[in-house]
Write a structure and sequence with these properties.
Elements (H helix, E strand, L loop, with lengths): L10 H22 L19 E5 L5 E3 L2 E2 L3 H13 L6 E5 L5 H13 L5 E3 L5
Parallel strand pairs: 1-4, 4-5
Antiparallel strand pairs: 1-2, 2-3
């Protein structure tokens, strides 16, 4: 006489365990990962510095807060000084409408080489 064998079907249990393992593998890095972010504070000592006006006229002449830059080296010096200040001032590049694009790109490249952190190109009406 053949007696039926009693076997436990473990296939559904293995499927459930595999799904749980996939969830753990995907979620565990997100649950254990911490990112520290240093947010700027607004204390009594944190005053916003005055922005620097870097004007470029139609002839390609450069003016730093109204002072004429005699040479590219002088502009580089001013940009390096601005990049070293804490907190960093906003350098506003103000090209006139008729200024050649090449000259503006040269000034932006100089600011990038000096590692200026805050830079804005401002539209002008002239």
């Amino acid at each position: 006489m053949d007696r039926p064998t009693v076997d436990l079907n473990t296939t559904p249990l293995i499927d459930v365990l595999l799904v749980l393992m996939v969830f753990l593998i995907l979620l565990l890095p997100h649950l254990t990962h911490n990112t520290r972010v240093a947010l700027p504070g607004r204390g009594s000592g944190d005053l916003e510095p005055e922005p620097v006006r870097l004007e470029i006229d139609a002839d390609g002449e450069i003016y730093w807060d109204g002072r004429h830059a005699e040479s590219p080296r002088q502009l580089d010096t001013w940009l390096h000084e601005a990049a070293q200040k804490v907190p960093a001032p906003l350098v506003q590049v103000l090209p006139q409408r008729r200024t050649r694009t090449e000259r503006v790109v040269q000034v932006l490249a100089a600011a990038q080489r000096a590692r200026v952190q805050r830079l804005a190109i401002m539209p002008t009406d002239s």
